[in-house]
UniProtKB/TrEMBL annotation:
Keywords: Flavoprotein, Oxidoreductase. This is NAD(P)/FAD-dependent oxidoreductase. It holds the Pfam family Pyr_redox_2. It comes from Mucilaginibacter pankratovii. Transmembrane segments: none annotated. Residues 5-284 form the FAD/NAD(P)-binding domain.
């Protein structure tokens, strides 16, 4: 049976579009399915991405999509992939509009979802002044009063790192700190305060934080807050096909971006804790080439 497409890419953001470009230029017939919900969509400006530093995420995506769509063998579907199965050596992908397409290879570039605590103001400020990464946004809030929302080992390590960007730092552990006495001493030695009082609200204007309110009625004036939230895979279709996850919840891949299921690849945030546009784009680029090589080796 002949497949409708050589490759279906699920997720058409940075990693997915990057793979689509490599495959389009390799003369492959590609379908990109994208639900249009990249994880950085709320952030006003993307940084630390050479050639596009300070651009809006929407501008970068639109430019990428325009360039990819110049290849007539790359097709784009705005919507969600809802089911995936293998049939007769091909992958069958169904969409939210009831359509079904087949392909020889599959790439998941579906990203992750940050699971935020139910504290008013955090979700609204995510990517604006509640930040995931100092390399992406630390420069803009350097030397400003800043909090870190984390506890234990994660909070300690995060505090060490953010101390590079600002010395006005408070670690908010939102309950018992789970820090060792050595860690508490080390933090104090760098004038990093630790506050264990539960956080009840993040007060902000259009996502820009002014202060954090605590359960005991006190408050802390800050301009930025870093946080590491738990995450889940945006798309569970890789697991439904049998792709293994790592102990941390990422899709397990090898150095070729191949998952544990033959013919299925993954790239971008769904595979790594190193979360940046350039890393996602590099992974998509590699996935595109590796998928093409696999097909060349099968066909030659
Ligand atoms: C708040 C925030 C700010 C950031 N700021 C920066 C920055 O300034 N600089 C920087 O370098 N990095 C930044 N990053 C990191 C960067 O945004 C990510 O590394 C990058 O977006 C990952 O690209 P991706 O393609 O893997 O996933 P994403 O960009 O998250 O895209 C995944 C895509 O897959 C789609 N999708 C998922 N499931 C399905 C499905 N079943 N069917 C169809 N489509 C589906 C989604 O809708 C989405 O469009 C930021 C991240 C966050 C969270």
């Amino acid at each position: 049976m002949k497949a409708d497409f050589d490759v279906i890419i699920i997720g058409g953001s940075y990693a997915g579009l990057s793979a689509a470009m490599a495959l389009g230029r390799a003369l492959r017939n590609v379908l990109v399915i994208d639900a249009g919900q990249p994880c950085n969509r709320q952030t006003p400006h993307a940084h630390n991405f050479i050639t596009n530093d300070g651009e809006t995420p929407a501008t970068i995506s639109a430019k990428a999509r325009k360039q990819v769509m110049q290849y007539p063998n790359v097709h784009f579907y705005n919507g969600t992939a809802t089911a995936a199965r293998e049939n007769d050596g091909l992958f069958v992908i169904e969409t939210d509009k009831g359509e079904s397409n087949t392909s020889r290879k599959l790439l998941f570039a579906t990203g992750i979802v940050d699971v935020m605590p139910a504290i008013p103001g955090i979700e609204q400020s995510w990517g604006i002044s509640v930040l995931h990464c100092p390399y992406c946004h630390g420069y803009e809030v350097r030397n400003q009063p800043t909090a870190i929302f984390a506890s234990g080992e994660v909070g300690f390590e995060f505090a060490k790192i953010i101390n590079n960007w600002t010395k006005e730092l408070t670690l908010l552990t939102n309950g018992p700190s789970q820090l060792t006495s050595e860690q508490i001493t080390a933090l104090a030695g760098h004038n990093i305060s630790v506050n264990e009082t539960p956080v009840t609200k993040v007060n902000h204007q259009d996502g820009y934080i002014s202060n954090v309110a605590f359960a005991d009625g006190s408050g802390l004036a800050i301009n930025a807050m870093y946080a590491k939230f738990p995450f889940r895979q945006t798309c569970e279709l890789p697991q439904s096909l049998g792709c293994a996850l790592t102990e941390h919840g990422f899709i397990k891949i090898d150095e070729m971006q191949a998952t544990t299921v033959n013919g299925v690849f993954a790239a971008g945030d769904n595979t790594t804790m190193f979360r940046s546009l350039s890393i996602a784009i590099a992974a998509g680029n590699r996935a595109g080439a590796m998928i093409n090589h696999q097909m060349i080796n099968e066909d030659f």
